[in-house]
Amino acid sequence: MTIQELINIIPFKILQRGKNYFNGGNILQLNQSSDGTWFAEVEGNYGNYEVEIK
What we know:
- By secondary structure, this protein is an alpha+beta fold.
- It has 2 helices and 3 strands.
- It has helices spanning 3-9, 12-23, and strands spanning 27-32, 38-44, 47-53.
- The termini are close together.
- The model has no long low-confidence stretch (mean pLDDT 91).
């Protein structure tokens, strides 16, 4: 999945929240696997967490 494809399917409110996290430096790591899955380590208000998008 490309970034543009991902942007097209994410609701606007959630996309804006993600942009705020990114612009605020809260995305600690972002990787894409060979099968198109995205993985992110995020610094949140209650500790770090991982996100996986298939």
